[in-house]
Amino acid sequence: METRIDWRALGSLLSTLHTPADQSIVAGVKKLEPGHVLVARAGGGVRIRRYWDVRFDPAAGRRESDIADELRGLLEESVRLHMVSDVPLGAFLSGGVDSSSIVALMSRRADRPVKTFSIGFRDEDFDETPDARRVARILGTEHHEAILDPDAAAVLEDVVYHLDEPFGDSSAIPTYMVSQLAARHVKVALSGDGGDELFAGYDRYRAEDRDRRHGPLERWAMGRLGRSMRRGMRGRNRLLHLSLPDGRRYLNRLTLYDPDEQRALLRPDVFEEVARHDPWFREARRLARGGHWLSRLQEVDLTSYLPLDILTKVDRMSMAHSIEARVPLLDHKVVEFAAKIPPGLLLHNGRSKHVLKRALADLLPESVLERPKRGFAIPLGRWFRGPLRDLPRDLLLSERSRRRGILDTAAVERLLADPERCGVLDLPIWTLLSFEIWCRTFLDQRPGAALPAPGGAERAAPIVSGETCPAGFA
């Protein structure tokens, strides 16, 4: 079978950071969507059906304390079930509310200190290890941590290989490395993924709460002013964003390359194919349903962003090291209960995850519960201005990339021309790098490494250095 790129999947990658739920990056190779089962019958015939779905339909009339108590019971039971294992078990710990809550509940049941694992950076603005270390001390875990150095080129090929497809979420890199760290000690690791979607933890929910307060007349005026401004003028994109209808405004917030940017980035014949498809069609349809605005956003994130980005990343990066990642917050009973919680108990007077924090109030100190959300970001922008400054040009402007005929060379030149701008465009550049590395690995079908080592040297070892609490690497 000839390996060809599916243009709909490429457009989705550039817009959403990932390929569609039902289509891989390879033309003719379909994917089974989350929550679906494929039934093949003897003698031929295949049927695909959905076996589970969730609809956010908040129920009114219950006291906050009762909701918090029931939620606590569901979380305790889910963690108990997820801890059943006949092999060594631990947990990923960032120091945030979700992972800390899982470790706290594990610690109450375990008969020995829970093994916890964290990855950090030498860049303090991105380093979560002090937070994780503090929680580990509070809960008495056996904590292990390592530092991710900016020599990321040494592991990029392995990350893309195990992802199977190009992938725009750069946090796949530290997820790969924390899984490598955990694999030295355990075979199963519990994770706190899902809490932001279920309990309204994303900062973008608060931003949308603010932005949606503009009335139709204000939005019309902002749109007219934004369209009158030259492209690149400060404030233009913000005005155009605020002028959009509610659902489309949220999707615009999630979009990496918008259609105009894709038109400039891609060769005309490629863009013509990509533009035939709306990568946000399904999400827009969900957002158009009735109900509370926050519930609609949560439903979109739970059914799209969570499985196609977060869980894809965690599952593939952990299994690359034979680690089974388990997610107690996504037990179906927890999900179905959370979908009934009134939005006012999730985002309460600007406080995110309000009812979850109440349910955990006796397990974790206020300093942990109220810690600002940081996400699992890496300092790619600073690396692109420093130790990795040559990598984007070496790959994206290479003869191999030019010969492929997908990206417009002049557009890539403009994208990479200003090193400071590369720091701002970290995810857009990383997404293109991921695509190029994938093409070299799977599409070009050439023997040897996809990434040349600088100066002809051998490729470096994986980029984890050091381990603390309790011991160094063996």
Here the CATH topology of the domain at 64-165 and 172-201 and 322-369 equals: Rossmann fold
**Pairing-aware structural class of the strands and helices?**
alpha/beta
**Strand runs, count:** 8
Large-scale geometry? globular
How many individual helices?
24
End-to-end gap: 44 Å
Biggest sheet record: 6 strands, mixed
Overall description:
This protein is an alpha/beta fold. It has a domain at 64-165 and 172-201 and 322-369: HUPs (Rossmann fold), CATH 3.40.50.620. It contains 24 helices and eight strands. The chain has helices at 7-16, 64-82, 97-109, 129-139, 153-163, 172-183, 195-199, 203-211, 216-228, 236-242, 246-254, 259-265, 268-274, 281-287, 293-319, 332-338, 354-359, 366-369, 380-385, 391-396, 399-404, 409-416, 419-424, 426-443, and strands spanning 36-40, 46-50, 89-92, 115-121, 142-148, 188-190, 324-326, 464-468. The strands form two sheets. The chain has a six-stranded mixed sheet, sandwiched between helices. A hairpin with a 5-residue loop joins β1 (36-40) and β2. α2 packs across α3, α2 runs antiparallel to α16 (332-338) and α9 (216-228) runs antiparallel to α10 (236-242). Mean pLDDT is 89; it is low at 452-465 and 468-474.
